[in-house]
Fold:
Amino acid sequence: MLKVHSFESLGTYDGPGIRLVVFLQGCAFKCLYCANPDTITFKGGNATPNEEIMRMARNQKPFFGTIGGITISGGEPLWQAKDLVSLFKELKAEGFRTCIDTNGNVFNDDVIELMEYTDLVLLDIKHINKDWHKTITGSENTTTLKFANHLREINKRTWLRYVLVPGYSDQEEYLNELGNYFKDYQNIEKLEIQPYHTLGVHKYQHLDMEYKLEGVPENTLDQLARAKGILEKYFKQVIIN
Ligand code: SF4
Structure:
């Protein structure tokens, strides 16, 4: 059974078209800007049988159209890859389109098998520089980059996602390094710049957690346009999400 944090019906943000989004509990990263800090702990979440998710997917199927489907997000969903394999087998057997939104920090045989039943990966790259990655997430990006390489090898449809935090992940030097690193990955269809926002800050107060980016301003339109201009040199398509 999957440990589910929450569901979003008719979501339009996490993958193509209209989607049922399932947020799983637990993540080993501790991103300074995490908008859902309550999904980080591996404790909690509701043990949810596949059948319940299948029932929701069938109910919403009329809204999915020709490109929508189911996205599994988190937290970090790949920690539950073994259980996701059984869910995705059922979803694919009924013709649903499947998508995983992941930070790529788990890479094992279950993840490799899961990719066989996954149509699209939304891969969150937190930073291309390992030291900055550690500053932002508390972990290095080694496993994420290995997972990205696997996606390239199996030619899996991938969208990169990149949160642009002023002073942390918007350095021109590293945006160019990010682009150079991935520019020959033909499986990457686009890069989504995700503007930094502070919408989740109140959750930190509620959880009695310190919000370490206090005082960091949201991006200006100029900063977003500048980052887009740099990244467009390397990726087929760059959008600001
Ligand atoms: S990877 Fe996602 S869920 Fe995990 S801490 Fe970072 S933003 Fe939060």
About this structure: DSSP finds eight helices and nine strands in the chain. The mean pLDDT is 97.
